[in-house]
Amino acid sequence: SVWRAATLARGCTLAFMIAFDLIVDDYDTSGSLSPGPGPRDPSSSALCRRAEGLVTWDSVYFARVATNGYEYEQTHAFFPLLPWLMRALSPLFGGGSCGVAVSGLAVSNAAHVASAVALERLGTSILDDEVLARAAAMLYAFNPAAVFHSAIYTEPLFAFLSFTGCLLLARTRKNAACVAFALASLARSNGVLNLIHLAFDFWRSALTPALRQMRRLWGEEEEGGGYVNGHESAVARVKRRKRVAWAKGLAMASIVFLARCVSVLTPTLWFQWMGYRTFCLGGGDPNGYYAANPRPWCASWRPFPNVYAFVQDHYWNVGLFRYYSPKQLPNFLLALPALGASVHAARAYVKGADEDATWMRKEPLRPFMFQWCVMALAAAAVMHVQVATRFLSVSPAVYWYLARVGANEGTGTRKMRRIVSTYCVVFGLVGTLMFPTFYPWT
Question: Is the whole model's pTM more than 0.90, yes or no?
Answer without folding.
Answer: yes
